[in-house]
Each structure stands twice: as C-alpha cells, then as structure tokens.
Amino acid sequence: MPLDEDDIKKELGVKHFLAGLSGYELKKAYLGNPTANIAGVWSGYTSIDQAKMDFRLVPDQDSNKLAKKLRDHINEHGFTEVELTLQAENPAARTPIDSEIARIGAETAREVFNREPAILINSAGSGPMHYWTNALKIPTIAIGVNHAHGNPHAPNENQRIDVFIQGSKWVARVIEEFARAS
Question: What are the backbone angles phi and psi of residue 44, rounded to the nearest 5°?
C-alpha cells in the first residue's frame, strides 16, 4: 500500500515523524501499532473541561489494563482530580491472512477493481469484529472502499458514487463466493 510520507507530513504540518520513522518502519508502525488518540477536547462556560480519547488495540491488549495505566500516568503528573470513564470496549480481533474469507476477499477485490488489493492485518479503524472472530470463532474480514479525498470521519466526509458502486459490487461478490465455498 503506498504511503506518501511527504504528503502526510505536509497535511499534518510536521517536519518529521516520531522517532524519526520512515519507509517500511513508518508503514509498519502506521498500519500495525496500537494507538492512543485524543479524539476531541471541549469546554464551555461551566467549570467542566472534557476530552475524549480512543485506543486502537492489537491482539492480547486489555482495555482495562490500559485504562489503569492512563489513570496512573494522569495521577503521576498531578491531575488526580481528573475523572476517567471507560465508555466502550472493542477488543482486538484478527483472522488469519490465509483463511478462506481472506482469500475470497482478495480474489473478489482483484476481480472487481482489476488491481492487487491492499491487504492489511490491522486497521486504524475499529468495530465489533471481536464478537464473531473471538467469541463465535467465525473468521471475519473488514472490507471497504474510499477515495483519496474522502476525509473519513471529518465534517466534510464524502464518498464518490462510482466508488460506492464498486464497493457494493465487491461486497456482493464476497458474499456470493463465501456462500458458494461454505
């Protein structure tokens, strides 16, 4: 999967990435490492200031243990009055890359898009895949499409109709082929 480092630095307004990462090591960190993200900070005329954080987990990470580490870190810096609430949890889930559903996802992507798919073992996104993958032991993949300027989750998020139609065809082909293989 291409990763244009100069464009990303320009968009973020930075001169370099943390720890001087670049090339393969940057891509590996960007696509595979757990994250801690400040998703919003807000305040008003009251004495209450709030911040929302999310953590993207990798397998074997425990959200309660991470919440405790965050609590300890906040306390160590003298902010013991800060209230910390764990609102939702989505444990990490991963299906083997050589599973039948992963193979079908890749093959149908090649068919629909006439190109090699970008296959990621981790995603910067999250969802309730763990219910199927971990609890029910059903192999699960996430498939989706976007375009370079789709701005996911931003106020100006958008989707091109041609990309939406291709993505719909892909989903249909995955379902059709998985049903045939089962």
Answer: -155, -150
Helix (H, G, I), strand (E, B) or coil at 84: coil
- Name the token pair of 6: 């100069």
Are the beta carbons of 161 and 170 closer than 8 angstroms? no
Q: Name residues whose C-beta falls within 8 Å of residue 36's C-beta, 6 or more positions apart in sequence.
A: 53, 55, 70
Is residue 151 within 8 Å of residue 158, measured between CB atoms? Answer: yes
Q: Are strands 49-56 and 35-43 parallel, antiparallel or unpaired?
A: antiparallel
Phi, psi of 145 (to 5 degrees): -135, 155
- Look at residues 18, 49, 48, 15 and name the one whose alpha carbon lies nearest to residue 33: 18
- Residue-wise pLDDT tens digits, 119-140: 887 776 677 888 999 999 999 9
Q: What is the domain count for the chain?
A: 3
CB 89 within 8 A of CB 143: no
Same domain, 137 and 148: yes
Of the candidate ranges 40-54, 70-84, 118-132, 153-167, the one whose mean pLDDT is the lowest:
118-132
Are 175 and 122 within one domain?
yes
Q: What is the pLDDT of residue 70?
A: 94
Cα–Cα dist 128/50, whole Å:
26
